[in-house]
C-alpha cells in the first residue's frame, strides 16, 4: 500500500518540485520572489496548524502568536549578537514552553476552550510586542535583523533564500506525511472523529491533542525564525489576530486535513491579495465571495476538488 | 471456575441526578465465556458497559479487570489493560480508511516516539509492519479484508459494525464488550455475526454482550445477567433465566406474548 502511494504520488511530487525550482528563472522580479518566500513560510505555518486543527480537531487561533514568538526570539537574539545557529533551537524552546503552558490545562477540556484560550494568548503576545518597546521595537517593529548564517555561510539574495525556504517546505511536508502515516497521525484523526472511540481503542487523546498542538507550534516557531532572518524586518502586524484568522482561512480554503491543501491555501491567499491589488477595495468583496464559494461548493477545500477527480488521492490526506 | 473471574465488579453504582441508573451491581464474568446482559429499555445495560470500559465512570464501587482495579481509570488505560468494546451507535473514524480505523487500536500498545516517526528508521518500520499485520488479521476475522483500503464511510451499515469489532480485536483484548452488535443487521448478517462471536470465544476471548434480540442471546450465551431498573434481578444459564419468574415479569413475558 505504501509502495502504491509512493508510485502514485511520484508524478505529482516531480511536477511540483520542477515548478518550484523553475519559478525564479521565470520571475526575476525581487518583489515576486519576496512574496513567494512569505507564501512558503505561511505554508509551513499552515501545515503546522493542520496538526492540531485539521487532524486533531482542536481549533487553534494561537498559530500567528507562535509564528511571532519564533520571529521575535530570533530577531532579538541575533541583534543581541548571538550566532544565528542557536536561534532555531531558541525559537523551538520558547514555543514549546508556551504551547505546554497553554495546552496542558486546556487539552483535558473540549474543543472550544482551546479556541478561547488561544485567542487570549494571541492578544497577550501582540500586546507584549507592542508595549515592550525597548526590546521589541513596539509598533514600528525590528529592522536590519542579521541574516541566516551557519558558521559564516548563508544564502545571499532573495533567490538563494527562495531555494532554502523551498527545501525547508519540502522537509516540513515530508515530516507531516510521516506523522500522518504513523500511530500518532492516525491517533490525531481518530481523536477528531470520535474522542470516546479513540480512547476506547487505547489512544491517550489528551496526550495526542497536546502533541499535535506542540508540533504545530514548533512548525510556526521555526517558520518565524526563518521569517525574521530571511525577510529581516518584522512588525507586530505580521503576527496579529487578523493573521491568525487568515492562517485559519488558508487551512479551510486549502482543505482541512490535507497537506497539499495547506500549501495551496497558503500560497493562494498570500499571492492573491497582491496580484489583485489593482482591484483596490473591491478585492475584499471578491475575497469574501471566494471564501463563501469554496465553503459552499467544495466544503473539503481546494484539495478536495483534486480528490474528486481521482478518489484514491484521498490516501494522501 | 477456580481462577479469578476476568471481570469482577462489586457495588457498581451510577446516578444521573435523582435517577439511580445502576444500583450497587455485582458482576462476575468467568474467563473464556460469552456472557450476555439483557433487560428492558433503560434498565442500565449500556450504563454498565460504560462503567466497565471507563467511557462514563461509576460513582461508587470496585471494578477489577484481569485482577487490575480500573475504577475511575481513563478509558485508554483500561483499553491497554486488555478490554476493548464496540458501541451501540456506530463510532468509526470517518476520515480514515478501513484498515487505518483498525490500525488506531492495533497501535495502542506499540511504543512510539516522535523521533522514530520523523526519522522513519528501522524500528519505526518494524512497528508499522507489525501494526499492519495485526490489523489485516483482525479484518480477516470479521471478513472485511477485501475492503481494507476503502474509506470507512463507504462501508454499508452492517459492515461498519463489523469494522468496530475488527478495531476492538486489533488491540488483542482479553475481554470484548459488544453493545448491541446485531442492531440494524438482517437475519443473514446476524447469523454471520453469531459465527464470528463463537469463533472469538474459541480463540479464548471473554465476551460480554448487551443485546436486545433475546433469541440471539439465548443461543450463544453461556451465562445471562438480567437487569431491571438498575438492579440485577437474575443471573445464570440461559435456560435457568428463561424460567425465572422475575425475568418473565420484567421482560421476557411481555416480549414473548407479543412476539
Which features does this protein show?
heterodimer, A: 317 residues, mainly alpha, B: 259 residues, alpha/beta, Rossmann fold, six-stranded mixed beta sheet, 10 helices, globular, disordered C terminus
Characterise the protein shown here:
The complex is a heterodimer of chains A (317) and B (259). Chain A has 317 residues and is mainly alpha-helical. Chain A has one domain (2-316): ABC transporter involved in vitamin B12 uptake, BtuC (Orthogonal Bundle). Helix content of chain A is 74%, strand content 0%. Chain A has 14 helices and no strands. Chain A has helices spanning 2-26, 30-55, 63-79, 87-106, 111-131, 133-136, 157-180, 183-193, 195-200, 205-231, 241-254, 259-275, 282-297, 302-309. In chain A, helix 2 crosses helix 8 (183-193) and helix 11 (241-254) packs across helix 12 (259-275). The longest helix of chain A has 27 residues, at 205-231. Mean pLDDT of chain A is 89; it is low at 1-5 and 311-317. Chain B has helices spanning 45-53, 75-80, 98-106, 114-119, 122-142, 157-170, 187-202, 214-220, 238-243, 245-258, and strands at residues 7-16, 19-29, 34-38, 60-65, 68-69, 83-85, 175-179, 206-210, 223-228, 231-236. In chain B, a hairpin with a 2-residue loop joins strand 1 (7-16) and strand 2. Chain B folds into 2 domains: 1-82 and 173-259, Rossmann fold (3-Layer(aba) Sandwich), CATH 3.40.50.300; 91-172, 3-Layer(aba) Sandwich (Rossmann fold). Chain B has 10 helices and 10 strands. The longest helix of chain B is centred in the middle third of the chain and has 21 residues, at 122-142. In chain B, helix 3 crosses helix 5, helix 3 runs parallel beside helix 6 and helix 5 (122-142) packs across helix 6 (157-170). Chain B is α/β, with parallel strands linked by helices.
